[in-house]
Amino acid sequence: MIIPRTIRRLQERRVHKNGPWAELFESYSGDEVVSLDCETTSLDVSKAEILSIGAVRIKGQKVKTSDRLDIRLKPPASLTGESIKVHKIRATDLSDGIELDEALDKLLAFIGNRPILGYYVNYDIRMIDKFLRPKYGFGLPNKSIELSHVYHDIIKWKHVGGDVDLRFDTIASKLDIPIIQRHTALGDAITVALMYVRLKHGQAPTSTH
């Protein structure tokens, strides 16, 4: 039986609300959002392995590029020629990578209970949960924000009628946002963060160092 995600989250919150990661399950009342991206060996969650994780915090109208997470993991056996064609990450590029358990600890500490933003963010969350749940007994409980939905709703409201092109490159172009190191986890996370700020605040986003 597949348990709906909302029910599973409630169950996990009940179990872990007094545990060492209790803060993750508290309602967030701040004004920060974390833009998250993962590079993986496949788009099939059941088969994919995580190669790298990138994240950056957004506070108000500012993308805090100095407040970021840039993790490379040890190369998995499933890193093949086909997957390398997509993300351009080779085993040699991951020679200084860390173990997955350490990466998950760093990720949880960085995100906390802040909302998670991403482009097709559900995929990234499912990938993290795939490895997080066996280790900790819970998946990411954070609220999620899908960039393409934010873009779609705003464009539809301003320009009624017609289909909205939700491709990553198209959204960046329409918002006049430079694509930073495409197909790198940190680059995509920063680009998504800049696009989100532009959409939410309607002016040129700024970054802080």
Structural notes for this entry:
- By secondary structure, the chain is of the alpha/beta class.
- The chain has a single domain, classed as Nucleotidyltransferase, domain 5 (2-Layer Sandwich).
- It is built from seven helices and six strands.
- It has helices spanning 5-16, 81-87, 100-111, 121-136, 147-158, 168-174, 185-201, and strands at 32-40, 50-59, 62-72, 116-118, 144-146, 206-208.
- A six-stranded mixed beta sheet has the order 5-4-1-2-3-6.
- Helix 5 (147-158) runs parallel beside helix 7 (185-201).
- It is globular, with a radius of gyration of 17 Å.
Task: Give the structure's gist in a few sentences.
Helices cover 40% and strands 19% of the residues. The protein has 209 residues and is an alpha/beta fold.
Supply the CATH superfamily name.
Ribonuclease H-like superfamily/Ribonuclease H
Global structural class: alpha/beta
Q: Return residue spans where pLDDT drops below 50 for at least 5 consecutive residues.
A: none
- Provide the number of structural domains: 1
Alpha carbon gap, first and last residue: 47 Å
CATH architecture classification: 2-Layer Sandwich
Listing every helix as H and every strand as E from the N terminus to the C terminus, the arrangement reads HEEEHHEHEHHHE
Counting DSSP E segments of at least 2 residues, the number of strands comes to 6
Q: What is the class in the CATH system? A: Alpha Beta
Shape: globular
Task: Report the CATH topology name.
Answer: Nucleotidyltransferase, domain 5
Percent of residues in beta strands: 15-25%
Integer-rounded radius of gyration: 17 Å
The whole-number mean of residue pLDDT values reads 85
The level of helicity is: 25-40%
Largest sheet: 6 strands, mixed
